[in-house]
């Protein structure tokens, strides 16, 4: 099972730890060092993705979900590992609140992009040329560094007309490691609202 990163994923991992304590037998693959540390504290058995080779399911959160169940992720900083784990899973299930549902990706105005530190300014200029407004993510007075040793540029954006085209354009820039666009990967989204939980499935 893939274990995501972020608030919703953290809540899920805590509940999963309770089930493991009662005898549930699983093996988890963490998408970040933070999630790995939490899983270890809860005695959830962890293996690497290379050891797992393939995952039955990954449970994670999201920052935006559109009607087609395409999403933007990465506010928590683990977008590249999350995407690798998601692509290695038979099913990807997301847990979100109703505030994460959007009519069009980009409505919240932020698309995280993970970049190699070398040539950061050139990469930022190329993103700007695509109409984005990249700002380097900072943390405790210094550059935010991902578990992969890279930086994140949070790209200001308006609603995205063609996410697939934008994804290809961004990935064509040397130095880009990955984007927060998760297209065609999600199977099910559970939306927890005031009246209960709604299940959304990819058509």
Describe this structure in words.
The protein has a 6-stranded mixed beta sheet with strand order 2-1-3-6-14-15. The protein has 2 domains: 119 residues, Rossmann fold (3-Layer(aba) Sandwich); 72 residues, Alpha-Beta Plaits (2-Layer Sandwich), CATH 3.30.70.260. Helices cover 28% and strands 30% of the residues. The chain is of the alpha/beta class. Strand 1, helix 1 and strand 2 form a beta-alpha-beta unit. The chain has 6 helices and 15 strands. It starts with a strand and ends with a strand. The model has no long low-confidence stretch (mean pLDDT 97).
Shape descriptor: globular
What is the CATH class of the largest domain?
Answer: Alpha Beta
Q: How many distinct domains?
A: 2
Total of helices: 6
Tally the beta strands.
15
Radius of gyration using CA atoms only:
17 Å
Decide which structural class fits the backbone.
Answer: alpha/beta
CATH fold-level label of the largest domain: Rossmann fold
Order of helices and strands: EHEHHEEEHEEHEEEEHEEEE
Beta-strand percentage?
A: 25-35%
Give start-end ranges of low-pLDDT stretches: none
Distance between the termini: 23 Å
Helicity level:
25-40%
**Overall mean pLDDT score?**
97
Sequence-ordered SSE layout with sheet pairings:
Elements: E1 2-3, H1 7-21, E2 29-30, H2 33-41, H3 49-52, E3 55-60, E4 64-65, E5 71-72, H4 79-87, E6 89-96, E7 110-115, H5 120-129, E8 133-136, E9 138-139, E10 142-143, E11 151-156, H6 163-171, E12 176-179, E13 181-182, E14 188-193, E15 196-201
Parallel strand pairs: 1-2, 1-3, 3-6, 6-14
Antiparallel strand pairs: 4-5, 5-13, 7-11, 7-12, 8-11, 9-10, 14-15
């Amino acid at each position: 099972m893939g274990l995501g990163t972020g608030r919703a994923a953290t809540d899920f991992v805590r509940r999963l730890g309770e089930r493991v304590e009662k005898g549930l037998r699983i093996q988890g693959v963490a998408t970040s060092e933070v999630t790995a540390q939490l899983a270890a504290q809860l005695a959830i058995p962890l293996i690497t993705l290379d050891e797992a080779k393939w995952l039955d399911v990954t449970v994670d959160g999201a920052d935006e979900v559109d009607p087609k169940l395409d999403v933007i992720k990465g506010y928590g900083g683990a977008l590249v590992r999350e995407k690798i784990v998601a692509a290695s899973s038979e099913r990807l299930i997301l847990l979100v609140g109703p505030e994460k549902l959007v009519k069009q990706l980009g409505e919240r105005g932020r698309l995280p992009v993970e970049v190699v530190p070398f040539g950061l300014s050139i990469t930022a200029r190329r993103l700007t040329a695509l109409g984005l407004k990249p700002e380097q993510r900072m943390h405790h007075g210094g550059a935010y560094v991902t578990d992969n040793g890279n930086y994140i540029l949070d790209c200001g954006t308006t609603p995205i007309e063609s996410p697939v085209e934008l994804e290809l354009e961004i990935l064509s820039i040397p130095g880009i490691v990955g984007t927060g666009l998760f297209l065609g990967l999600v199977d099910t989204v559970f939306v927890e609202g005031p009246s209960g939980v709604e299940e959304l499935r990819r058509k």
